[in-house]
Amino acid sequence: MKKIMDNKKTLVQDMLEGYVKAFSGRVRLLGNHILLRAKEKDLSKTAVIIGNGSGHEPAMIDLVGEGLFDANVCGKIFAAPSPMEMMDALKELSKNGHEEILILVSSHAGDILNAKMTLMLAKAEGIKADMVVLWDDISSAPKGMEQERRGTAGLFFAYKVVCSAAEDGMKMHDLIVLAEKTRDNTRTLSVAIKSGTHPETGLPTFELPEDEIEVGMGVHGEAGTGRMKLPTAKDLTEYMMEQILADKPFISGDKVGVLVNNAGSMTRMELMIIYRHVVRIMEEKGIEIVRNWVGTYVTTQEMAGFSIAVCKMDDEILKYYDYKVDSPLF
Question: What is the spatial distance between Cα 41 and Cα 51, in angstroms, rounded to a whole number?
Answer without folding.
Answer: 19
